[in-house]
Amino acid sequence: MSGSTLQGNSLQQILNSLIYGIEGADPLLTGAVLLRQMSGNKLELIAAPSLEPATRQTLLEAEKHVGSGICGQALLSGERIVFTDFRHHPCPACRNLGMLPQFAACWAEPMRNRQGEIIGVFALYNRHPVHPDLNQIALLTHSASLARLAIEHCRAKLALSMAHTNWQAAQPITLVTDLDNRILNCSVLFTALSGYRQEALFGKNLSGILSSQMSHVSTQASFTIESKCWAGELWLHKQNQQQPEAVWASIDMIFNKNGVICGKLVRLYPITDWNGDAVTRQRLATEQRWQPAALE
Question: Are 211 and 141 found together in one domain?
Fold first, then answer.
């Protein structure tokens, strides 16, 4: 299983392909992958592409949780379990499973993640009540290793995607202007808040979008070179909306590499996201403020 295969397919597709390959080489075998749920001791059947829904349900009844059935025992013990005849299993649900043609014997291999935790089981079921030979055991262990790699890769990819989403959501609503208040750049969050398209904002004077609470006064008057920073409540004039919306704004100067002021960094915080009075909001805004930026 190549890295490109892992990158381009879902976990379900990868595991199904692995199982189909085994079943195609030996029609007596049926493959399945069961994962331990993140919370609790229940098992989840995530791959068994050859089984009909009713058969999958019968399998899950035999493998409800850690400690039950063959796979549940493998999860509990952390050891490979070979059971050669379901008809003689002490569990009634397993005996019921043995009445189906695919399930005479079960060979279950636990899968461990890199931290050594058992995350699931790769199982091969045989139509005959037989013990696996050395080649079949090698097939079982190798398949479990491939399945484990696919599961860990997809989980890591999902975690990275979620972290990126959370990082984006945590970004403040920001704009960068030159010293004449012309917008040079803005975050996607500002376009969502203001209703303007990003390309329509570039070069636009910020004073037409943000104004003082008391009157339609340019923010340029609120920020001077001498003050170096400013924070307070402003009106945000959204596109195609008559009533402005109150926002808390902080404005900092931007320096170039020679220490010369070359622009302004504006951060906005919707008032509805804040609790407390103006003093509290100013303190919170100050705590969240970035350090003055340096531009090349």
Answer: no
What is the rounded distance in angstroms from the CA atom of residue 200 to the CA atom of residue 198?
Answer: 5
Q: What is the pLDDT along the chain (296 residues), one digit of tens a residue?
A: 433 344 445 888 999 999 999 999 999 999 999 998 876 788 889 999 999 999 999 998 888 878 888 999 999 899 999 999 988 888 888 888 889 999 999 999 999 988 888 999 999 999 999 999 999 999 999 999 999 999 988 887 776 666 555 555 556 688 888 888 889 988 888 888 889 988 888 888 988 898 875 444 444 444 444 456 788 888 899 988 888 888 888 888 888 777 778 888 898 887 754 444 444 445 444 444 433 333 33
212 and 285: one domain?
yes
For residue 115, give the amino acid letter: Q
Alpha helix (H) residue ranges in the chain: 3-8, 11-25, 53-62, 69-77, 92-98, 134-170, 188-194, 198-201, 278-288
Q: 168, 187, 213 — which closes off a domain?
A: 168
Provide the residue range defining the domain that includes 139: 3-168
Contact predicate 249/231, CB 8 Å: yes
Whether residues 273 and 146 fall in one domain: no
pTM for this one? 0.55
Query: 157: which residues sit within 8 A by CB, 6+ positions away?
Result: none
Split into its structural domains, the chain has a count of 2
Indicate whether 186 and 157 sit together in one domain.
Answer: no
